[in-house]
Amino acid sequence: VDEDLYIMQRGGWGDQRGLIFVLNNRGEWNGGWVGTQWKGTRFIPAAWRGRDDAGIPAEKTTRGDGWGEFWAPPRGYAVYIPQV
What we know:
By secondary structure, the protein is mainly beta. The chain contains no helices and seven strands. Helix content is 0%, strand content 49%.
């Protein structure tokens, strides 16, 4: 977390898989590396919106230690869902 970027993990429960949420306050694409509970897992963007940018976030995959890089569009957000 910093003044322009917020990334959080929601673990899920029952048959809900959880998610990664990225909130970006910069006027350009922004993201960062974070540790997650999911090791070696592919994530797909399920929802996103950016101000004046219709770009689609790329799919991401966490490393074997659970760390992954997640991005959101300018002045927008992205929600990534693990494919477990």
